[in-house]
Write a structure and sequence with these properties.
Chain B: This is Ribose transport system ATP-binding protein. The complex is a heterodimer. Chain A is built from 13 helices and 4 strands. Chain A is mainly alpha-helical. In chain B, the strands form 5 sheets. Chain B has a 6-stranded mixed beta sheet, with helices on both faces. A 6-stranded mixed beta sheet of chain B has the order 17-18-19-14-20-21, sandwiched between helices. Classes of the chains: A mainly alpha, B alpha/beta. Chains A and B meet through helix 1, helix 8 and helix 9 of A and helix 9 and helix 10 of B.
Chain lengths: 306, 469
């Protein structure tokens, strides 16, 4: 192939991989022009904090989606982990989150359940357990967890830093670890992965456990922000996490997805919500707009891939 | 006689790539016109231009007949009946509802034209792939297609099914249909072709008559003289590296014993369904077996455990490249490193990629490669893992002549380094030409073994023998 062909190719590839970023920039530009309040440092920091919980959930979801699965339980697991954290100690919450993920993984790989079903079951079980152990009441978080949600300085909130740190971890896991490389192989072609000597079942255990762990981290951040773990915290967040992953260009059929894409996807959702608030769009209509944006992102993605 | 299709000076670019460059083609009524060329030579593009899917950038096409293309991926609805598929876009109707009676009345006549004996109410899903092809051909003929383009229809067929298809093609030709036939199998060409247009790099490099020799076709296709189609360099056989003894899985294979020595290529021939792939998969630990043992280099290999098989020094290139061999969403590099993730070595990866002469970069999506280059990537994955014994299952299916020879060279190189190769192949000239010994399987058993230099007749005689069980 000639150089021109290759260059054209790489432009196309760049767009295919960074379409969400372009969308985010356009969105930010439109908001900056239409409302001066958007482009203030304080507002941008707020957007970052609002994005943090969804982004952290979505990072864990990225592992699962790249490996060809889905995890519907992350919202409930986040709530359960936060509640356990509030009733005992933060680190215990993390362990519980990872355990929930391990159960998901075991159901998927050894029980051969479709991921949708296994994690749907966990969605219900984890939420139920949260209600049981909390007695339906919110509980105050301990100092450690409250610290996770606090600001180091007014312009430096810890959730934002945690999001960036876990973003780095996600990128590292996906691109530099064997587990990450195997996620792409399993999601791209499970049979080929198996015939190449990859222990697909065991890998899936770890992959879902990671998702559970990230969900727990998100739950703790969320609770820390409010200094309180609520039994109805993070309801429906799994859908936002999936949306962030998809807006970020990952394919729900597996094998495709990147940490940067997911971060951008989560930021798109947060910026959109923030912008719609600033523009005083009624919350009912906000849902309509957000749904339309998700469909649009997926549509553009499918057009680009053609 | 007037041509059904006259194409002149067809040129087509995709970006900066010239896919077709001034190609002329005539298709007459009552001829089988073969399009021959390596993958990427422009056959598919030409077919798409003829069918009107792509517009040519330059050149003219005159169509004097309706034209139908039968692709490898069939355009049938599996859950519908044969009759419904036959009349798919023009179901006979009565009072606004589908007239099933009329459909059933007319279907048998159509099926007869292609010699297909299935019930019109049978679901297409329940038919074999060969029968499905016939349904699609029958549908095309009913729509008064004067020209039928068959894009590698035999790639998915067994020997007898192919014979049957070639017969039907000859019949259609005698009834005045013009057929354009694409295939990689030169022997099929010699059996049915009236004319052969050879494409290379988007250009028509010659039109041959029905009596063209294999050598002539290949040389035109690759553009240089080919010394040897099967360049096997035999080595002194050493210690036994792979010993499959008494391997049995009821219903699949029975008491199969095969030994492969260092430096050796042992072929496994047989009809489709003889149990060859099943034995290969079982030996590699993909599927379980009931009795018997698999030993590599004198040590027994744990059954039903791919990781154990790989640790013992086995590798398998599976028959279904896209379904089992490749991660199509990945890059060339990602696919090469699949079997060696635990001890990755980027330097060696690059070295292997160079040795494979895979056209393209290690960061290129493997999806964009031709079939031959994709297969080289699957083999390269194992070259990186450096197994003692590599099992190749139909390694050159759908691979063009040039890449085939490169794959054979890789086999030679492996055996020269004291490794062993078990070559499962339905391509008789290949399995005979590249193997030092040929084991023939029939009905799940080893029917016999033939030394180097066996003839196709000898192999077939063993392959078709009646079951003794």
């Amino acid at each position: 192939m000639t150089t021109i062909g290759t260059r054209k190719h790489s432009v196309k590839r760049f767009l295919a991989e960074n379409g969400a970023l372009a969308g985010l920039l356009v969105l930010a530009l439109v908001l900056a022009i239409s409302n001066p309040a958007f482009l203030t440092a304080q507002n941008l920091v707020n957007v970052g904090v609002q994005a943090a919980a969804i982004a952290i959930l979505a990072f864990g979801m990225t592992f699962v989606v790249v490996a060809g699965g889905i995890d519907l339980s992350v919202g409930s697991v986040a709530a359960l982990a936060a509640m356990v954290g509030a009733l005992t100690a933060g680190p215990v919450g993390l362990v519980v989150g990872a355990l929930c993920g391990l159960v998901n993984g075991a159901l998927v790989s050894y029980g051969k359940l479709p991921p949708f079903i296994a994690t749907l079951a966990m969605l219900s079980v984890a939420r139920g357990l949260t209600l049981v152990i909390s007695g339906g009441q919110p509980h105050e978080t301990d100092e450690l967890v409250t610290f996770l949600g606090s600001n180091l300085t007014p312009m430096l909130p810890l959730p934002l830093l945690l999001m960036l740190a876990l973003f780095g971890v996600t990128g590292l896991v996906l691109t530099r670890t064997n587990l990450g490389r195997r996620m792409y192989a399993i999601g791209g072609n499970e049979e080929a992965a198996k015939l190449s000597g990859i222990d697909v079942r065991r890998q899936k255990l770890w992959i879902y456990a990671l998702s559970g762990l990230f969900a727990a981290a998100a739950g703790l951040v969320l609770a820390g922000r409010l200094s309180s773990a609520g039994p109805q915290a993070a309801v429906g967040y799994e859908l936002d996490a999936i949306a962030a992953v998809v807006i970020g260009g990952a394919s729900l059929s597996g094998g495709v997805g990147r940490a940067t894409g997911t971060l951008v996807g989560a930021l798109v959702l947060a910026v959109l919500r923030n912008g719609l608030n600033l523009l005083q769009v009624h919350p009912f209509w906000q849902q309509v707009v957000i749904g339309a944006v998700i469909a649009l992102a997926a549509l553009l993605d499918s057009l680009r891939r053609r | 006689m007037n041509a059904l299709i006259t194409a002149r000076g067809i040129t087509k670019h995709f970006g900066a790539t010239k896919a077709l460059d001034g190609v002329d083609l005539d298709v007459f009524a009552g001829e089988v016109h073969v399009l021959l060329g390596e993958n990427g030579a422009g056959k598919s593009t030409l077919v798409k231009v003829l069918a009107g899917i792509h517009d040519p950038d330059d050149g003219t096409i005159e169509r004097n007949a309706r034209l139908a293309v039968i692709h490898q991926e069939l355009a049938l609805v599996p859950e519908l009946s044969v009759a419904e598929n036959l009349f798919l876009n023009r179901l006979p109707r009565r009072f606004g509802l589908v007239d099933r009676a009329a459909m059933r009345r007319r279907a048998p006549e159509l099926l007869d034209r292609v010699g297909l004996r299935v019930h019109p109410d049978a679901k297409v899903r329940d038919l074999g792939i060969a029968q499905q092809q016939m349904v699609e051909i029958a549908r095309a003929l009913d729509q008064d297609a004067g020209v039928l383009i068959l894009d590698e229809p035999t790639a998915v067929l067994t020997g007898t099914e192919t014979d049957r298809l070639l017969e039907i093609m000859a019949q259609l030709r005698d009834n005045g249909v013009g057929l354009v036939f694409i295939t990689h199998h030169l022997d099929e060409i010699q059996r049915v072709a009236d004319r052969i247009t050879v494409l290379r790099d988007g250009r028509s490099v010659g039109v041959l008559g029905p009596r063209a020799t294999t050598r002539h076709m290949i040389e035109l296709m690759v553009g240089r003289p080919i010394d040897e189609q099967y360049p096997r360099e035999q080595q002194e056989a050493g210690e036994p590296l792979l010993r499959i003894s008494g391997l049995t899985r009821s219903g699949a294979f029975e008491d199969v014993t095969i030994e492969v020595h260092a430096g050796e290529v042992v072929g496994v021939a047989g009809l489709v369904g003889a149990g060859r792939t099943e034995v290969a998969r079982a030996a590699f630990g993909v599927d379980d077996y009931d009795r018997g043992t698999v030993e590599v280099d004198g040590k027994p290999v744990r059954r039903h455990d791919v990781q154990a098989a790989i640790r013992a020094g086995l590798g398998l290139v599976p028959e279904d490249r896209k379904g089992q061999g490749l991660v199509l969403t990945g890059t060339v590099g990602q696919n090469l490193e699949l079997a060696t993730l635990a001890n990755r070595d980027p330097r060696r990866l690059r070295e292997i990629a160079d040795r494979l002469r895979v056209k393209g970069h290690v960061d290129q999506p493997v999806r964009e490669l031709s079939g031959g280059n994709q297969q080289k990537v699957v083999i390269g994955k194992w070259l990186l893992a450096d197994p003692k014994v590599l099992i190749l299952d139909e390694p050159t299916r759908g691979v063009d002549v040039g890449a085939k020879v490169e794959i054979y060279e890789l086999v030679n190189r492996m055996t020269a380094q004291g490794r062993a190769v078990l070559l499962v192949s339905s391509d008789l000239p290949e399995v005979i030409g590249m193997s030092d010994r040929v084991v023939v399987m029939a009905h799940g058993r080893v029917a016999g073994e033939l030394p180097k230099g066996a003839t196709q007749d000898q192999v077939m005689a063993l392959a078709v023998q009646e079951s003794t069980a």
